[in-house]
Design goal:
The chain is an all-beta fold. 1% of the residues lie in helices and 42% in strands. It is built from 2 helices and 57 strands.
Length: 761
């Protein structure tokens, strides 16, 4: 993830909503088309959040330049073509209940507190738009807990509320400004920060930080639990194995007591504490009982696997989020020795019934539980490896009342070619579309495709993929994923008979290992070759990386991009002269995995017009190759590894050896070193070529036959006419429906969704 964090205006940091309305006052973008045609739009970015781009400026009249090669590289005709009127397009989105505005569903909820009136207060380490901590009520986001983002600041995984204040766990890193009360270099403060009930910081005597609202509890590890009893605040100091007790008004420490590895805390009707003791090595997790003075009481709960959150309901029962294989909220009577008296949610969670299929009572990756005074139940599911927010409210009888979804973070979508764009997939989610409905109402969350218990070595649990390709190969459905650095290509198969809606790990390509360390460092995956690059195929179908399942070689390590064509062949662009690799599909094995090998790999030279190849898309039906990168005529200014280059070039009759371009398009790129202008990604489908810029998130549309620009797309009013920066090399994917309509999917990381443009034929 790129951190594009700029200096924060301190007055605006009091409240995220106020900040978001004013943080970008002006914008400036300049880019040069071929032969000095310049279009200017002004941007100056003010604010603390990352990845923000606006599109609220008037449309400009402009001309495009293009190069059409009709004979050879020495005979290039240059023509100016004024853009012609095009049919109107519509904007929609998937993945977030709220499509625009300062208050939308945050990327993740890692802790939550439910007030008696049903107001839900949340906290998390990171939210791209700066809402690490939010306030929800009646299915709406009603507020943000401010100033949690930027200036080396982040949220955390604990939150609690009393009648006067909100208290959240947070971190504050150094800024080289110790005179303004920031930590010294190399030090991180792990804090409790106090706010009033509207979400504004509430300073206190001897408070720390620039606004004196921070209580430093540790410089070694974060706060892992918070609770209040009358005028006392209880804080879990994980590293010190302590519960620290503070006065809620003065924030002075009153006392402390010892408990190993303390986590979440809740208070029972007798005003005693129930505390999660986290798992430590071979010592399983427990829930322990303590008095306010720190005396350990005899009651405890040990029949749990992975408790992640606890709360007390209106009847005094203890609610436990069990994030082990059960994926349920467990209910304990704690009047004497704790006894489990019930559970909530389907046993097995999202993997019950049809695995992966979303249902009201199927939970997955629990991070928060609570109830209000009416007995309504609130549960948050975060998925696995922080898949996204799924906050639900149920009636006491278990009927779903509302649901707030924020499922997208650094992600893009692609369509299943078999279902004409009705089924969409992101890296972990499956959506069902009804295009007859209004914008934002077209999508239904159909399935969660990751099974963390059956396939614990699933690459999605150990890496951060973000680019999605859905393919039908020999009639079978496959999902291919890569990341923002083109580090790998992951392959997944589907088998509804054995795994329902789950994407099963099937294969993986990685880049070249170095001489002294593997390309993928750490303990995963097991048994990977120590040197060279490798292809893994799940030969026995169990989803595990095993010794006899690797094919390895050694090749140039710097990757430009991946492509999977309609036949299932894999293509890889390397940033070198000998820079195209073609892996023809060798068939599908008995387990259903596509077969690729280094022995069948073909090396192809990069066309000489390129000196840094970045993207590749090949279409076997027409034998057409589209390449993008930096060229001899339009070289890179520096080494901005994430962009698509300076030109997109089409070659016909590629497999027959033709390397004479049919046309060359100069796309927006950095020619000044200021990095204000660049193109992130391209996608070709039908008779259109689509390219999206990084900072303005504008989609340039070209005629695939002629290379002439025909249209430019900007986010419409349906999504607030705004978008975040495009962070990933596959931040745009396009699909053409049977009626001729184009669906264009664009990453929108800032507000946690995927934008969809719908263009008539």
């Amino acid at each position: 993830m790129k951190n594009k964090l700029f200096f924060q205006l301190r007055k605006l940091s009091q409240h995220i909503q106020k900040l978001s309305q004013t943080r970008y006052l002006q914008r400036s973008k300049t880019f040069n088309f071929l032969l000095s045609l310049t279009v200017g739009v002004i941007v100056t970015t003010l604010g603390i959040t990352t990845d923000w781009a606006t599109t609220k400026t008037p449309t400009l009249t402009y001309k495009t330049s293009w190069i059409n090669n009709i004979t050879d590289n020495k005979n290039l005709l240059v023509q100016n073509n004024t853009a012609t009127p095009t049919p109107a397009y519509k904007t929609s989105w998937i993945g977030n209940t709220i499509g625009s505005g300062n208050l939308r569903v945050q990327n993740n909820i890692e802790a939550m507190y439910v007030a008696p009136d049903g107001t839900v207060y949340t906290n998390s380490h990171w939210d791209e738009a700066g809402m690490e901590a939010g306030i929800y009520k009646d299915g709406k986001v009603i507020g943000a807990i401010g100033d949690t983002h930027g200036w080396s600041r982040g949220g955390g995984k604990a939150v609690t509320v009393n009648s006067k204040y909100i208290y959240i766990a947070m971190t504050q890193g150094s800024r080289g400004k110790t005179n303004e009360d920031y930590p010294p270099e190399g030090t991180t403060w792990h804090c409790v920060r106090r706010y009033d009930l509207s979400g504004k910081p509430a300073p206190f005597p001897n408070g720390r930080g620039w606004d004196k609202s921070m209580l430093i509890t540790s410089t070694k590890s974060e706060v892992t639990g918070l609770a209040t009893v009358e005028s006392e605040l209880y804080v879990s100091d994980f590293a010190a194995n302590q519960i620290r007790v503070y006065d809620t008004d003065t924030m002075k420490e009153l006392r402390s007591f010892t408990i190993a590895h303390p986590g979440a805390i809740t208070i029972d009707p007798q005003k005693n504490l129930w505390i999660i003791q986290s798992k430590n090595g071979d010592n399983p997790a427990k829930i322990l009982h303590y008095s306010q003075s720190g005396k350990q009481l005899p009651q405890q709960i040990a029949d749990i696997v992975e408790p992640t959150a606890i709360a007390i309901d209106r009847e005094g029962k203890l609610l436990v989020a069990e994030n082990g294989p059960r994926q349920q909220m467990l209910i304990y009577d704690i009047k004497s020795q704790p006894v489990q008296v019930g559970s909530f949610g389907s046993k097995g969670g999202i993997y019950a019934g049809v695995p992966g299929e979303v249902r009201d009572l199927k939970l997955y990756g629990l991070t928060g539980v609570g109830t209000d005074t009416s007995g309504n139940i609130y549960i948050n599911s975060n998925g696995f490896n922080k898949s996204g927010t799924d906050l639900r409210k149920f009636s006491p009888s278990g009927k779903l009342i509302w649901r707030s979804l924020g499922l997208i973070f650094v992600d893009n979508a692609d369509a299943d070619p078999k279902t004409d764009g009705v089924d969409l997939f992101t890296k972990q989610e499956h959506y069902l579309m009804d295009y007859s409905k209004p914008a934002g109402k077209q999508w239904t969350y159909k399935a969660y495709t990751l099974n963390a218990f059956k396939y614990p070595q699933d690459p999605r649990l150990h890496t951060s993929p973000d680019g999605t390709f859905v393919r039908r190969i020999q009639g079978k459905q496959f999902l291919f994923l890569t990341d923002m650095y083109s580090s790998f290509l992951q392959i997944y198969r589907f088998n509804s008979a054995t795994d329902g809606q789950i994407a099963i790990p099937a294969g993986m390509f990685v880049g070249t290992n170095g001489a002294d360390k593997p390309f993928l460092e750490g303990n995963w995956p097991p048994h990977q070759p120590e040197q060279g690059e490798w292809i893994w195929r799940d030969r026995n179908g169990n989803g595990k990386f095993e010794k006899n399942e690797y094919d390895h070689s050694k090749d140039y390590p710097h990757l430009g991009g991946w492509w999977v064509d309609s036949k299932g062949d894999v293509w890889k662009a390397l940033r070198t002269e000998d820079g195209i690799r073609h892996y023809p599909l060798q068939g599908i094995d008995p387990q259903g995995n596509p077969i690729y090998s280094y022995s069948s790999m073909e090396k192809q030279a990069t066309p000489k017009i390129f000196n840094d190849l970045r993207r590749i898309e090949y279409f076997p039906q027409t034998d057409t190759m589209y390449l993008s990168g930096f060229t001899v005529d339009h070289p890179a200014f520096g080494d901005d590894t994430g962009v698509a280059g300076s030109e997109i070039v089409r070659f016909d009759n590629w497999s027959q050896g033709n390397r004479t371009p049919k046309w060359r398009i100069v796309i927006p790129y950095d020619s000044t070193g200021k990095r204000e202008v660049s193109t992130a990604a391209m996608s070709v489908v039908g008779d259109r070529v689509f390219a999206v810029t990084v900072k303005t998130a504008e989609v340039y549309v070209y005629n695939a036959t002629t290379g002439v620009q025909v249209q430019k797309l900007k986010p419409g009013p349906e999504v607030g006419s705004e978008s975040g920066w495009i962070d990933i090399p596959y931040g745009i994917r396009a699909f053409r429906r049977s009626n001729g309509e184009y669906l264009v999917f664009v990453e929108e990381n800032w507000k946690g969704k995927v934008i969809i443009y719908r263009l008539p034929s």
